């Protein structure tokens, strides 16, 4: 397997929003290739179009210039092979945790029994089997987000899109969820694309980090994450890479430490 | 509506006592001949009238006739309102075209429709029911429309990412999300329909019903009957309101974000 | 964990003015598009109505042609009777609204500020207001006759109810955070009323007044249908008795247009009174 088909291939992608106030260019000339099973993180300031990029890959928005191919096929709309986790959990408040996960299988060809088993397995995977019958409002932020992750994974997508999935959580829950996310994505063997504005998170989770710049959103550089940095947050490799990214984003290392 | 004002504290007896005081004052005013009994009947007179009406069965059959018209009109108006509201909410374009007319129609005085409907449908039962249906239609259509049109964008996006069909979207996302507002519309419709029922009985042809008894009491100067009819009118409104509130609370329990 | 601040993008100087021009014009275009769409439906109905009348689909006793209605509108304008009836109705609404708003504001503020009133006087009054004024009308007739007094009282009654409710609630339920603020700043009672209670109550009271005006318009029609010898409601009753639908329709249209513009102007006043409120979250 020297040259596998890329899981995701983006070429010369540009996106312009037509607003009442005029045209707003949010993405300019994005080119990115992601291999199967790879975990790629995208980091950048707000306004660099990273969430827009995910929506385009998902197929929610089909108005763009350039090319997006998933497994070699151009994206024409949402499909079963791609799933997304949003920053807000977006659980339907009138459905139980279980039913929320099952909602992702409404259009699946599986029979009812298999669906029920898949739902159970995925709630188990995120450690929430005991809360299958709970209403979303009874869950904490972290738990609700885990249900949302289960919902995204239950259809066994080949591609998992994560739009700042941990952005709304408190610092401690967030650290714990980063571990979880790493484990879960590895377990499912999915290709993952995670958008964040947290540089630590980007370095810790990604095999590669895409650094983006705003106005209009464009790729500044793409960095490989050394295995030792990805394994240990306090390793010199981790700190060096983080500082380098912060520098690219216009934040000095000393400033970053002071935060 | 005014629940927080009506019940300041859970074990506060003063509101109940205040009613008792009003009744006592009312009764005392009669005993000491402070008011003209031709204009204000004694509380007991009204009760006596209720008992005699009940034993004769007249007030019950009047109430039944009124309620029948009321419920029929409400059902027609609410069904039309929910259906049209769902169409307006589901299609942005139709909402833009028809919506402003619906809103403008809501702003016009409801009772201005009485003469027109009386001429179109006659002053009998069908005219009355048409008017009641119109009264129920207005708040239902607007609230259903708003509720479905204002489903938050994140939920629409979620439905798109899960590849929901239009039907799945309506069933699993739009209708549950709009349910509180649809119920608000139906609740208002219930109150309006009741108002329109009595109004139609006062303004269209006199037919058996509560409104007829109201006019009878006024024209024959039978104050006890008049007060009784007003009390029943109020009581039915109160019962409708409490029923709607209880039902709303029950149906929406646990479904709020 | 680091939050990253975006640096402001360099904006080219020259295109800026052009963009500003586009920015100021674009919403206008979108707005007029919306208005055109909204007008298209009633215009289509009107066209259908004209066509139906011309082809004789509906008998004129059921629906006279638009031209007939327009002609009687012109006639009513020419002989001054429309102005007379409209004037009579508007005066009633103004008097009733003034009465109801005054009573509502005073009584509502009293109930909101004095706990004893809230406990002892409010419940029976509330019970009476729960019964719509429509049902009280036959009784009020016996006390007030069927002349102007009845009309003003009925309209005033219907106005006062939402005003009382809104005022009492707004004045009575000052949020705890604002009350704490008053305590922290060591304000006197008068200062608290002026600086905290009233401004935060104003939006709710304004909404109550607007609701009251809507009620006034509703009950004007009710009371004029019930008993009157002039006014727009009377014009409708008269047209109905003469089987002249065109009169009924003219009166309906005038009632609709006036009611709509009353509401619009009160909304404008509301916005003008509360410049700190952004337009969002208005209406029910």
TrEMBL record, chain A:
Pfam families: ABC_tran. GO terms for molecular function: ATP binding; ATP hydrolysis activity. It comes from Rhodobacter viridis. It comes from the Bacteria. Keywords: ATP-binding, Nucleotide-binding, Transport. This is NitT/TauT family transport system ATP-binding protein/sulfonate transport system ATP-binding protein. The lineage of its organism: Bacteria, Pseudomonadati, Pseudomonadota, Alphaproteobacteria, Rhodobacterales. InterPro entries: AAA+_ATPase, ABC_transporter-like_ATP-bd, ABC_transporter-like_CS, ABC_transporter_ATP-bind, P-loop_NTPase. Belongs to the ABC transporter superfamily. Residues 8-239 form the ABC transporter domain.
UniProtKB/TrEMBL annotation, chain B:
It is found in: Cell membrane. Belongs to the binding-protein-dependent transport system permease family. Residues 63-244 form the ABC transmembrane type-1 domain. InterPro entries: MetI-like, MetI-like_sf. It holds the Pfam family BPD_transp_1. This is Sulfonate transport system permease protein. It is a multi-pass membrane protein. Keywords: Cell membrane, Membrane, Transmembrane, Transmembrane helix, Transport. The chain crosses the membrane at residues 16-34, 71-91, 103-123, 225-243. Signal peptide: none annotated. GO terms for biological process: transmembrane transport. GO terms for cellular component: plasma membrane. It comes from Rhodobacter viridis.
UniProtKB/TrEMBL annotation, chain C:
InterPro entries: MetI-like, MetI-like_sf, Romo1/Mgr2. Belongs to the binding-protein-dependent transport system permease family. It is a multi-pass membrane protein. It is found in: Cell membrane. It comes from Rhodobacter viridis. The chain crosses the membrane at residues 31-51, 97-121, 127-145, 152-171, 247-266. Residues 86-266 form the ABC transmembrane type-1 domain. This is Sulfonate transport system permease protein. GO terms for biological process: cellular response to sulfur starvation; transmembrane transport. The keyword Coiled coil does not apply.
């Amino acid at each position: 397997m020297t040259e596998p088909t890329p899981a995701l291939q983006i070429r010369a992608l540009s996106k312009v929003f037509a607003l009442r106030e005029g045209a707003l260019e949010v993405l300019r000339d994005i080119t990115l290739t992601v291999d199967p099973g790879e975990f790629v993180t995208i980091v950048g300031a707000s306004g660099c179009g990273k969430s827009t990029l995910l929506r385009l890959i998902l197929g929610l928005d089909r108005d763009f210039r350039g090319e997006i191919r998933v497994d070699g096929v151009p994206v024409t709309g949402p499909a079963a092979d791609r799933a997304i986790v949003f920053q807000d959990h977006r659980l339907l408040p009138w459905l139980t945790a279980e039913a929320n996960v099952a909602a992702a299988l409404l259009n699946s060809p599986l029979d009812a029994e298999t669906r029920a088993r898949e739902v159970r397995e995925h709630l188990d995977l995120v450690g929430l089997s005991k809360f299958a019958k709970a209403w979303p409002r009874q869950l904490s932020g972290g738990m609700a987000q885990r249900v949302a992750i289960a919902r995204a994974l239950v259809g066994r997508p080949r591609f998992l899109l994560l739009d700042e999935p941990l952005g709304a959580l408190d610092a401690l829950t967030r650290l714990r969820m980063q571990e979880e996310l790493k484990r879960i994505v590895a377990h499912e063997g999915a290709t993952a694309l995670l958008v964040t504005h947290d540089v630590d998170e980007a370095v810790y989770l990604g095999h590669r980090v895409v650094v983006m710049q705003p106005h209009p959103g464009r790729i500044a550089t793409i960095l490989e994450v050394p295995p030792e940095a990805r394994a240990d947050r306090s390793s010199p490799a981790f700190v060096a890479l983080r500082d380098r990214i912060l520098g690219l984003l216009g934040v000095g290392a000393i400033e970053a430490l002071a935060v | 509506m005014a629940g927080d004002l009506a019940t300041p504290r859970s074990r506060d007896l003063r509101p109940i006592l205040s009613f008792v005081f009003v009744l006592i004052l009312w009764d005392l005013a009669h005993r000491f001949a402070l008011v003209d009994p031709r204009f204000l009947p004694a509380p007991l007179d009204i009760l006596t009238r209720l008992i005699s009406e009940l034993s004769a069965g007249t007030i019950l059959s009047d109430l039944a006739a009124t309620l029948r018209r009321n419920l029929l009109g409400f059902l027609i108006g609410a069904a039309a309102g929910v259906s049209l509201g769902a169409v307006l909410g589901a299609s942005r374009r139709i909402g833009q075209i028809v919506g402003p007319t619906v809103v403008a129609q809501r702003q016009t005085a409801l009772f201005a429709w009485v003469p027109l409907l009386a001429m179109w449908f006659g002053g009998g039962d069908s005219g009355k029911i048409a008017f009641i249906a119109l009264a129920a239609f207005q708040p239902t259509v607007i609230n259903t429309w708003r509720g479905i049109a204002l489903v938050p964008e994140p939920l629409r996006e979620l439905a798109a990412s899960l590849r929901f069909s239009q039907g799945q979207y309506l069933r699993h996302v739009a209708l549950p999300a709009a349910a509180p507002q649809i119920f608000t519309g139906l609740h208002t419709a219930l109150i309006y329909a009741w108002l329109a029922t009595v109004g139609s009985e006062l303004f269209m042809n006199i037919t058996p019903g509560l409104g007829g008894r109201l006019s009878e009491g006024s024209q024959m100067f039978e104050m006890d009957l008049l007060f009784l009819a007003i009390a029943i009118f109020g009581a039915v409104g109160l019962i409708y309101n409490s029923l709607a509130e209880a039902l709303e609370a029950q149906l929406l329990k646990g479904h709020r974000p | 964990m680091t939050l990253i601040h975006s640096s402001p993008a360099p904006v080219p100087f020259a295109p800026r003015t052009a963009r500003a021009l586009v920015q100021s014009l674009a919403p206008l275009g979108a707005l007029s598009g919306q208005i055109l769409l909204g007008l298209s439906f009633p215009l289509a109905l009107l066209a259908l109505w004209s066509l139906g009348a011309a082809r004789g689909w509906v008998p004129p006793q059921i629906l006279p042609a638009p031209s007939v209605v327009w002609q009687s509108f012109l006639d009513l304008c020419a002989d001054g009777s429309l102005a007379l009836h409209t004037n009579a109705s508007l005066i009633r609404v103004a008097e009733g609204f003034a009465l109801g708003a005054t009573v509502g504001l005073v009584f509502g503020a009293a109930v909101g500020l004095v706990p004893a009133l809230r406990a002892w006087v409010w419940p029976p009054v509330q019970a009476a207001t729960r019964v719509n004024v429509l049902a009280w009308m036959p009784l009020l007739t016996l006390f007030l006759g069927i002349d102007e007094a009845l009309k003003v009282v009925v309209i005033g009654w219907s106005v006062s109810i939402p005003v009382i409710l809104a005022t009492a609630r707004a004045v009575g339920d000052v949020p705890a955070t604002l009350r704490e603020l008053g305590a922290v700043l060591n304000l006197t009672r008068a200062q608290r009323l002026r600086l905290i209670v009233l401004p935060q109550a104003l939006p709710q009271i304004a909404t109550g007044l607007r609701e009251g005006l809507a009620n006034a318009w509703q009950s004007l029609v009710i009371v004029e249908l019930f008993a009157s010898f002039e006014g727009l409601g009377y014009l409708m009753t008269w047209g109905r008795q003469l089987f002249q639908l065109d009169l009924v329709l003219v009166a309906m249209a005038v009632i609709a247009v006036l009611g709509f513009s009353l509401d619009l102007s009160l909304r404008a006043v509301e916005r003008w009174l509360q410049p700190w409120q952004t337009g969002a979250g208005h209406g029910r």
